[in-house]
Amino acid sequence: MNLNLLKETFVSFIRARGMDRHFRRLGMDMFRSAPVTKEVPPTLAEQLSEASRSQAQALLQRLRSRPDGLTEAEADAIREHSGPNEVEHEKPLTWYVHLWHCYKNPFNLLLTLLAAVSFYTEDMKAAIVIGTMVVVSTLLRFVQEARSNTAADKLKAMVSNTATVMRHDQVEEIAAEAQRYFDVLLHPKGARRVEVPIHQLVPGDIVLLSAGDMIPADLRLLAAKDLFVSQAAMTGESLPVEKFVTPSNLNTSSPLELDNLCFMGTNVVSGSATGVVLTTGKRTYFGALAERVTATDRTPTAFQAGVNKVSWLLIRFMLVMTPVVFFINGFTKGDWVEAFLFGLSVAVGLTPEMLPMIVTSTLAKGAVALSRKKVIVKRLDAIQNFGAMDVLCTDKTGTLTQDKIFLERHTDIHGAPDDEVLQYAYLNSYYQTGLKNLLDVAVLEHAELQREMSIASAYRKVDEIPFDFQRRRMSVVVSEREDHHELICKGAVEEIVSVCSRARVNGEVVPLTPALLDEIRATTGSLNAEGLRVVGVAAKDLPPTKEVYSLADESDLVLIGYIAFLDPPKESTAPALAALRAHGVKVKILTGDNELVTAKICREVGLEVKGMLLGSYVEKMSDAELSEAVETVTVFAKLSPAHKERIVRVLHDRGHVVGFMGDGINDAPALRAADIGISVDTAVDIAKEAADLILLEKSLMVLEEGVLEGRKTFANMLKYIKMTASSNFGNVFSVLIASAFLPFLPMLPLHLLVQNLLYDVSQISIPFDNVDKEFLEKPQRWDAGDIGRFMVFFGPISSIFDITTFALMWFVFGASSPEHQTLFQSGWFIEGLLSQTLIVHMIRTRRIPFFQSRASWPLMGMTLVIMAIGIAIPMTPLAHYFKLEALPLSYFPWLVAILVAYAVLIQGMKGWYAKRYGWQ
Question: Which of 566, 585, 609 corresponds to the end of one domain?
Answer without folding.
Answer: 566
